[in-house]
Amino acid sequence: MRTTTKNGVTLKYPDEIGFCFNPCLIVLEGPNVASVALSLSDGTNTQGTEFDALGGHVYGDFREFVQTLFDDTTFGDIDYSAKSTKSKLGKLVTLTATAFQLSEAGERVAVAEFTFTVFYVWGALALGETYNGQREVTLFRGFPFTVGLYNDGNEGAVLVSNDGKATTVISLDGQGVFDVTVPNETARHFYIISDFKGTLAATTFDDTYDLTFRKIGAGTFEDKVRVNIVDGVDDGFYLRWIDRHGFYCYWLFKKGAEQFQVANGGEYLRNNLLAYDQSYGYQGGAGRRQAYTRQDTVPVCAPLVSRETWDYLLGIATSPVVDLFRAYKADGKTPIWQSVTVQAGTYTKAMRTPLQDFALNILLPETPTQTL
Asked: Which of 59, 202, 250, 328 is a Cys-bridge partner for 217, taking CB atoms 3.0 to 4.6 Å apart?
């Protein structure tokens, strides 16, 4: 955490990058401080709260207010025809903390005001995890695909190498999270995405008492992502989800036998006092259900994946945003996605097996049915 002092009041506040589902803390202390008013703004939306002091000390967690700044976020808003798209899953937030004392007349008097900025990501890190570090992903040729990267500087860029040969430089304008589109046609085996200007800094979630972040591994020309290419596979369930780091992830799963669960809906109507014919309408005297509901479940599997890939795929089980690729629009470039849900369950990872299956069940949207 960063620290600053003004008029005898000391404020500890978050470092320059944070995650809105992790603790977002301010710690303030000063003589006779009664409360702190905190204002948050992303340039469009503004939120505010206030924390009372105890013995001149204030300890506040404002993560819920940061989360509300993402309420207007449109998930899946990616231009797959562009080289890069600035993601809405990251926001630069300006915060103003005002410390108040109580006068002898019992009125609040502002004694210090602090203004600072934090870049917040729609995600959460576990202790010891590295954000924006080196990783390996898979591109299934012919399907829409992007790589998520955090650019820490105003003028960043990545170098894309096709099969180890430097090919393209893609600019990343401004601080933010970017979805970089990797071309499907050029490389045969793999791509390497490198930090071209030293602005793709990695961040580790430090487990000190104040839950701070510290940066590691910033460097020019550092290889950030290896994209392995899989050819000749076009059947299955291609899913997209947002992981806990606020990046979009993709995988083509093998599809199992679909299960269709039909449940009774409405009431069971019976009329034994009338004739069993159509003279009293379709129901007549026979008993019938008013409605049914249908829920389709599809088991999917990624067979024999490495331990690292298994961990990568486990992110889909906790993601609130999961989409199924249906097809391309008439232009052949714009993908059509359908929101789906992952069925809750237990996932067991074998510790001594280098390759193992990753399986889960996908719940499709409820199928509409007629109602009497």
From this structure: 202
Which tokens in the block code for residue 318?
A: 């906790």
Q: Say what the pLDDT of residue 152 is.
A: 87
Q: How far is CA 281 from CA 271, 284, 292, 306, in A?
A: 12, 5, 20, 62
Q: In whole angstroms, what is the distance from residue 317 CA to residue 359 CA?
A: 10
CA–CA gap between residue 123 and residue 130 (Å, rounded):
13
SS3 (DSSP) at 372? coil
Could you give phi then psi for residue 37, rounded to 5 degrees? -100, 130
Distance CA 294, CA 164 (A): 50
What are the backbone angles phi and psi of residue 30, rounded to the nearest 5°? 180, 160
Mean pLDDT of the chain, nearest integer = 86
Which of 3, 19, 1 is closest to 11 using CA atoms?
Answer: 3
SS3 64: helix
- What does the pLDDT read at residue 209? 45
Give the three-state DSSP class for 210. coil
Q: What is the DSSP letter of 184?
A: S
Give the other-Cβ count within 10 Å of 71's Cβ. 8
CA 219 to mean position of chain CA atoms: 26
The owner of tokens 């009338």 is 274
HSE (CB half, 13 Å, CA atoms) of 184?
13
Rounded to 10 degrees, the C-alpha dihedral 339/343/346/348 comes to: -50
d(CA 105, CA 37): 20
Q: Compute the chain's Rg from CA coordinates.
A: 27
* 207-224 confidence digits (pLDDT tens): 554 555 666 655 555 889
Cα–Cα distance, 154 to 224 (Å, whole number):
19
pTM above 0.90, yes or no: no
Measured in degrees and rounded to the nearest 5, phi and psi for residue 34 equal -100, -35
